[in-house]
TrEMBL record:
PANTHER family: GLUTAMYL-TRNA(GLN) AMIDOTRANSFERASE SUBUNIT C, MITOCHONDRIAL. It comes from Paenibacillus lutrae. GO terms for biological process: glutaminyl-tRNAGln biosynthesis via transamidation; regulation of translational fidelity; translation. The keyword Protein biosynthesis applies. Keywords: ATP-binding, Ligase, Nucleotide-binding, Protein biosynthesis, Transferase. InterPro entries: Asp/Glu-ADT_sf_sub_c (IPR036113), GatC (IPR003837). Heterotrimer of A, B and C subunits. Its EC number is 6.3.5.-. HAMAP family: GatC (MF_00122). It is an enzyme of class 6 (ligase). It catalyses: L-aspartyl-tRNA(Asn) + L-glutamine + ATP + H2O = L-asparaginyl-tRNA(Asn) + L-glutamate + ADP + phosphate + 2 H(+); L-glutamyl-tRNA(Gln) + L-glutamine + ATP + H2O = L-glutaminyl-tRNA(Gln) + L-glutamate + ADP + phosphate + H(+). This is Aspartyl/glutamyl-tRNA(Asn/Gln) amidotransferase subunit C. Allows the formation of correctly charged Asn-tRNA(Asn) or Gln-tRNA(Gln) through the transamidation of misacylated Asp-tRNA(Asn) or Glu-tRNA(Gln) in organisms which lack either or both of asparaginyl-tRNA or glutaminyl-tRNA synthetases. The reaction takes place in the presence of glutamine and ATP through an activated phospho-Asp-tRNA(Asn) or phospho-Glu-tRNA(Gln). Belongs to the GatC family. The gene is gatC.
Amino acid sequence: MSITIQNVEHVAKLARLDLSEEEKEQFTEQLNAILKYAEQLNKLDTDHVEPTSHPISVSNVTREDQVKPSLSLDKVMLNAPEEEEGQFKVPAVME
């Protein structure tokens, strides 16, 4: 498969990019070089390779939830610049 200037123009149009003729040629060459490099993967024998979603095995490393006592409301409100009815009072965002 190879990329043509028309392909580059189509993608540029979808992305609403205004490319010069020089940029179109440059991107066509670069994309074709990438595809040529990727074609090397087709030469590899992968018949006995298991499909993977990650190159190394990964396990969930989260800990179990533990119930712990939290701060009292009085201690929490010590951090509030202003407090009203047990809630943080902040400046209004909208008028």
